[in-house]
């Protein structure tokens, strides 16, 4: 039920577009997960308070014998315990209130034992089944000074043992669909967009609460409902609770859950879609990208390792080009569904197949598949949609999105000390001319002038951390990490390449192994950067961090502060020390840890924690982008 509106000029009301978008998105997501839409009331029908009451009267008389659960979504304006609706005809004020407890929730609850009330069909056929209510509305105090319990008042309970039953009263419990005893208070779950006496946020593009919940349903299809609600709360705080101006650049909000579920609730996931085509060569291509991840881990500086790395880069580059062409020409490719050897292949297929074959030959020369077989597999692949080929290319964008959501503007922070700030300022100008969509955050560096060396006109770098900066290709880099005050733990620097082809641990590594946060919270790498350089080989050992690539490549860095070593977690294991790409399983394990332990942690400094208590784990993450400028 979506009945949200707001007043515009001359007393005219119009629907709240954000609620419309959020509800439509959630409905689509629920239908993908096995739900059936049985009733709907939307703001384009200008629903009044009476229309809302009528809707729930009708739903309450439906028979749900053939359904496993009920989910009710309510999106409107309101206050504690009630929602408002569109004005009645001829009126210029919202109608209502619609009392949530009496007009909605109780219609799905069996009557109390002492009352001779006839149960509604819905309450009778939903006994022992989950009944979920998502309420996206403000909960301002209005005339009420106490938060309501959704299903009954203190008078209803009457000081009884349970639900009006007193000592010695006879009791015959209702039964769930399996014949097991339940009770009329059980199997309800109420999720409110905000806590009592607070407001809920909505914009033109969605709702703080419902949009976040829909995103969690899509991102975590195998999580339980309660886990999804918890993740929604974390997502709301990360996305909308960042520092800023309230209701302008941020909207701090915390949803409240009240539940009496008797079982864990999971939604239908559906069967995994088979790869089309089912040719074994396609699966071998997918496996090839994983197999070459760590082939030369023991000798990363060898010629063979460099050749393998270049082959992987070429393959992923061709795959990106192939994906873009396939997406633009999907209709044309559908006509090629019968493509076989000897027929013309879609654009980019031959180049992609050749890149795959080269990598396969480097990995295992005797087992490499033939070029015609690869061309056929890739031709069919173009019909199956995007991201069928590369599990690496399929997973890293998801990890990037999750890392960006977890990143905070608070410490830990990354600052580029070398090349000089003058060098960075010059190259940033080139970037801003070439990429006008990039924002220049120089204005945020309020203390820039204090960055000058005392007694000198040389400016080294701004005191404020930037979200991005730029350097010329080939420059040696020196980074400074700053942890939150009082942090005791370890620094980790993750690197994600521009084309999502590499996801690696850049620090610590075999050249700089000590990643413990110093007492002052500041660490600089490479640690030997400022030492005298005696030879080119020595320089590579001491100044191992440098920028390679082409013009305007955007490399992403994620700085993690963890109160415990990542490699101590069994799901992560030993991290590669030579800056090779992380296996997808290990990369996902790190992100899962961050999602679990970094949610909300940016709001406080990391305490000193050296024990192994799971509750004592604290992590924080921030991001930094480096853009290359070619001469």
Radius of gyration: 30 Å
Note the total helix count: 16
Number of strands: 19
**Helicity level, as a percent range?**
25-40%
Looking across the biggest beta sheet, what order are the strands in?
13-19-18-15-16
Quickly list its features.
five-stranded mixed sheet, 631 residues, 30% helix, 3 domains, Rossmann fold, four-stranded mixed sheet, alpha+beta
Topology:
Blueprint: E1 5-7, E2 13-15, H1 17-32, H2 49-60, E3 70-75, E4 78-79, E5 82-85, E6 95-99, H3 100-103, H4 121-125, E7 131-136, H5 154-157, E8 188-192, E9 202-203, E10 206-207, H6 208-219, H7 225-240, E11 256-259, H8 280-291, H9 303-328, H10 330-334, H11 349-363, H12 371-381, H13 391-406, E12 413-418, H14 421-434, E13 468-472, E14 478-482, E15 490-496, E16 503-507, E17 522-525, H15 536-542, E18 554-562, H16 584-597, E19 619-629
Parallel strand pairs: 3-7, 7-8, 13-19
Antiparallel strand pairs: 1-2, 4-5, 5-6, 8-11, 9-10, 12-14, 14-17, 15-16, 15-18, 18-19
């Amino acid at each position: 039920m979506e009945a949200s509106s707001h007043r515009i000029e001359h007393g005219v009301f119009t629907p709240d577009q954000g609620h419309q978008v959020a509800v439509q998105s959630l409905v689509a997501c629920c239908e993908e997960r096995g739900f059936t839409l049985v009733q709907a009331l939307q703001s384009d029908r200008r629903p009044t308070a009476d229309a809302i009451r009528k809707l729930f009267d009708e739903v309450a008389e439906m028979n749900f014998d053939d359904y496993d659960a009920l989910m009710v979504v309510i999106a409107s304006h309101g206050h504690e315990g009630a929602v408002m609706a569109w004005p009645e005809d001829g009126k210029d004020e919202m109608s209502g209130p619609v009392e949530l407890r009496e007009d909605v929730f109780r219609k799905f609850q069996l009557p109390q034992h002492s009352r001779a009330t006839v149960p509604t069909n819905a309450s009778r056929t939903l006994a022992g089944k989950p009944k979920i209510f998502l309420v996206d509305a403000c909960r301002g105090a209005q005339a009420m000074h106490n938060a309501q319990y959704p299903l009954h008042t203190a008078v209803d309970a009457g000081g009884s043992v349970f639900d009006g039953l007193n000592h010695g009263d006879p009791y015959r419990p209702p039964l769930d669909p399996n014949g097991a005893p339940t009770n009329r208070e059980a199997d309800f779950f109420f999720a409110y967009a905000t806590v009592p006496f607070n407001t809920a946020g909505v914009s033109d593009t969605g709702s703080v609460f419902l949009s976040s919940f829909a995103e969690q349903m899509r991102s975590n299809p195998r999580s339980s409902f309660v886990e999804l609600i918890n993740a929604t709360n974390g997502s709301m705080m990360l996305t909308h609770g960042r520092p800023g101006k309230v209701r302008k650049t941020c909207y701090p909000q915390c949803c409240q859950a009240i539940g009496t579920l008797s079982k864990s609730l999971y939604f239908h996931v559906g069967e995994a879609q088979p790869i089309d085509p089912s040719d074994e060569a396609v699966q071998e291509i997918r496996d090839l990208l994983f197999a070459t991840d760590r082939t030369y881990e023991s000798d990363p500086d060898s010629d063979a390792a460099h050749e393998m790395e270049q082959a992987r880069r070429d393959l992923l580059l061709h795959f990106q080009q192939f994906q873009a062409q396939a997406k633009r020409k999907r209709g044309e490719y559908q006509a090629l569904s019968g493509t076989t050897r000897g027929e013309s292949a879609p654009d980019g297929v031959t180049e992609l197949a050749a890149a795959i074959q080269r990598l396969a030959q480097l990995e295992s020369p005797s087992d490499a598949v033939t070029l015609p077989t690869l061309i056929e597999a890739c031709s069919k692949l173009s019909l199956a949609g995007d991201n069928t080929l590369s599990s690496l290319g399929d997973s890293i964008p998801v990890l990037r999105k999750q890392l960006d959501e977890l990143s905070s503007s608070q410490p830990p922070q990354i600052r580029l000390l070398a090349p000089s700030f003058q060098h960075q300022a010059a190259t940033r100008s080139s970037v801003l001319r070439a990429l006008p969509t990039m924002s220049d955050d120089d204005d945020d560096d309020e203390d820039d002038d204090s960055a000058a060396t005392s007694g000198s006109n040389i400016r080294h770098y701004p005191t404020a951390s930037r979200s991005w900066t730029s350097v010329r290709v080939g420059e040696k880099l020196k980074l400074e990490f700053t942890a939150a005050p009082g942090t005791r733990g370890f620094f980790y620097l993750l690197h994600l390449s521009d084309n999502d082809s590499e996801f690696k641990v850049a620090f610590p590594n075999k050249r700089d192994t000590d990643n413990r946060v110093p007492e002052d919270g500041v660490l600089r790498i490479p640690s030997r950067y400022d030492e005298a350089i005696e030879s080119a080989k020595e320089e590579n050992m001491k100044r191992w961090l440098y920028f390679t690539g082409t013009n305007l490549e955007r490399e992403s860095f994620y700085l993690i502060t963890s109160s415990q070593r990542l490699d101590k977690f069994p799901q992560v294991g030993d991290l590669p020390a030579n800056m090779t790409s992380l296996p997808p399983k290990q990369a996902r394990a790190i992100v899962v840890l961050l999602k679990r332990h970094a949610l909300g942690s940016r709001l406080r400094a990391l305490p000193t924690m050296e024990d192994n208590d799971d509750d004592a784990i604290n992590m924080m993450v921030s991001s930094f982008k480096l853009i290359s400028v070619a001469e």
